[in-house]
Amino acid sequence: MVLTALGLGAFLAATPSLVTALQLGGAAYLAYLAWTTWRTAAAPVEIATTPTRAFRKGFLVNIANPKIALFFTAFLPQFLGDAEKNPTLQLLLLGFLLQSLGLLTDLAIGCAAGAVRDRLLHRPRPRTLLNHLAATTYATLGVTLLAKTLR
């Protein structure tokens, strides 16, 4: 959100080779996630974590998520008011509002998912099936991204 307000979209528009490099890196990362998820699908689950560690992991995932950056650079600026009235502040306020609403939604989903997780992840068959489904999804997304990038 802050990077968008400071001109990330304009910078990426001016450097298409950087966008291509980011897309190729994203496709490679998705392939890595697919491979490791499939390979460890039947491994024992380690659920024990501290709230601080869970927060840090979630924060890093969100910071590294290209979907978030794409949303803030391509979609959110369309909702700015008069461009002469401090667009940076408008982007920061809209981004803060979006993040606040997202936090509330994610907390509700996280609580519900935690209850389901405890039931599913200790049973080998559903855990393996869900991990294989996740690995297949990662691989499909990676191949799709690679195909679109190389076009």
Automatic annotation (TrEMBL):
UniProt entry tagged with the keyword Cell membrane: yes
GO MF entries: amino acid transmembrane transporter activity
GO annotations of cellular component type: plasma membrane
Keyword terms, alphabetized: Cell membrane, Membrane, Transmembrane, Transmembrane helix
Main location, first listed in the record: membrane
Keyword set includes Cell membrane: yes
Superkingdom of origin: Bacteria
InterPro entries noted in UniProt: LeuE-type
Protein location: Cell membrane
Residues passing through the membrane, by range: 91-116, 128-147
Membrane topology field: Multi-pass membrane protein
PANTHER family xref list: ARGININE EXPORTER PROTEIN ARGO, ARGININE EXPORTER PROTEIN ARGO-RELATED
Protein name stated in the entry: Threonine/homoserine/homoserine lactone efflux protein
Organism: Saccharopolyspora flava
